[in-house]
Amino acid sequence: AALANGTVAGVTYSGVTTATLTLTSLTGALNGSIYRVRTRTTGTCDLYSNNATLTVNPLPVVNNLTPTLCEDQPGGSGTASNIDLPLLYDAAVMGGTPPNTSVQYFTNAARTAGFLISAPINIFNTQTIFTRVTNSSTTCISDGTLVFTVRALPARANQMVQICEDTPPGSLAATGINLQSFETAIAGGSMVNRDVEWYENAALTILIPPGAAVGAEQNYSINADKQIHAKIIDTSSPTVPPCFSQATLDLDYQARPNDNQITDGIGQVLGATYTVCASSNLVLLQINPTLNPGSTYTWTVPPVSYPGEFELLTGTTGFFIILRF
User: What is the C-alpha separation between 33 and 26, in angstroms, rounded?
Assistant: First the structure.
């Protein structure tokens, strides 16, 4: 049938009475269509050309993506550094690895050569990267986008806690430490959408196992100062692996003071009871200040039960006190 200028089934024809026929908005349905030119001179004699078969190559697949990345450092920097776009996204953009097909990444929508991304780049939150998929065999192209979300890392707060040696003094170990009791503080004050894993090393390769078994995170032990490492995980993060921060917990091992008996002014060790006579004489009670070097002392003196029962003549933070009864 003779063609006419205009749109038929979504395809627009123009130049149907000229030496150049133009078709726009082609679809795959026209692949294999046959066209020929009729040349008519004066009169009714027609001359037809040889058949011309139309080949419509399919456009390469392009997928628009909305990737999520983790920022580099806690604190809302909103930047993910050194992102290798081809390594991470080529297959997803093309829907696989089709032959003769490649992806280019640009920072401008016009996809001009000066804005071609040819090395790993830093990505900021809400940034759009513009893609172009090209089939080198057909030269057909398809354009798409990557719209990035850069997710903030969980809050973190390094902690230091003092851990006392077990009783009796000289046991040389502090056992039964529940690391979970420090998790809220080390996660910045909230465990909403958070999980904490504990590790022996900064590389986070030696896991302190969860649970209450000996040596696990609910039953940990030390015998000297020790630093351990917390991996604070955002459990709502869509990334694989989830976004996480890292913090340290310094366990400050404190030896327990040796028992220090109270003696009076003549060196007599006090027992469960101690009898004094009411007088104006002074009563000295003391402990041995050389037994636990570097220690501080606090005396607990009960209040008087009636006026004039006794008088405390010193403070309560030295190695001795003086009373008058």
Answer: 11
Per residue in 177-195, is it b (16+ CB within 10 Å) or e — as a string?
A: bebeebbeebbbeeeeebb
Determine whether 281 is exposed, middle or buried from the number of CB atoms within 10 Å of its CB (0-12, 13-18, 19+).
Answer: exposed
For the whole prediction, is pTM greater than 0.90? no
CA neighbor of 134 nearest in space, from 106, 94, 79, 88? 94
Each residue's pLDDT tens digit, 47-57:
888 999 999 99
Q: Helices (DSSP H) in 84-172: which residue ranges? A: 85-94
Distances (CA, A) of 3 to 12, 18, 38, 51, 55: 11, 12, 11, 15, 18
Q: What is the pLDDT of residues 140-174, one digit of tens each?
A: 999 999 999 999 999 999 999 999 999 998 899 99
- Tell me 5's DSSP state: S
Q: Tell me 120's DSSP state.
A: -
Phi, psi of 122 (to 5 degrees): -90, 135
